[in-house]
Design goal:
The chain is of the alpha+beta class and 146 residues long. It has a domain at 47-132. It is 22% helix and 15% strand. The protein has three helices and five strands, in the order H-H-E-E-E-E-E-H. Strands 4-3-2-1-5 form a five-stranded antiparallel β-sheet, with no helix packed on it.
């Protein structure tokens, strides 16, 4: 008789043992994949005259100023250091940058800051101060900045 009871118990318990394996699993929350959207690059007004497409840094050698499309603004010498501004630097507000000399710095990653290597660019692309006599330009390395 004990064999019969044991057999009946096994038959009754078996469905419950199998049920534990089929129990619904907890749903885990998955992080949604987010794709970085491309930052919209603003093409400055002077770009068309120079056939510039805002895919590289630009150096204005006569003004010791850079245009950084990644940051969306200008980097210029101010009070002994390079400073960033999204607007034109004050000393360039009346300058026609469409007719100014520029140097497009091709091959330089947009993640880099060209102003960190300004001695190289100043030597490679020297300023032509002949066309610049009306605008006081801050010059890197000068004690007063001008």
């Amino acid at each position: 008789m004990s064999k019969k009871i044991l057999f009946l118990l096994l038959i009754c318990i078996c469905p419950y043992l199998g049920f534990a394996q089929d129990a619904p699993k907890k749903q885990t929350k998955h992080k949604k994949k987010t794709h970085k959207t491309e930052k919209s690059i603003v093409v400055p007004p002077w770009a068309a005259a120079h056939k510039y497409d805002a895919t590289a840094h630009v150096y204005f050698p006569d003004y010791y100023t850079y245009y950084d499309p990644n940051r969306g603004g200008y980097v210029f010498w101010n009070e002994g250091k390079y400073t960033f501004t999204p607007a034109l630097p004050p000393f360039l507000e009346k300058v026609d940058l469409s007719s100014s000399r520029i140097q497009i710095l091709k091959g330089l990653s947009l993640d880099l800051h060209p102003e960190l290597n300004y001695p190289y660019y100043m030597k490679q692309y020297p300023a032509d101060n002949n066309g610049n006599t009306m605008v006081p330009v801050p010059v890197p390395g000068n004690p007063g900045g001008n």
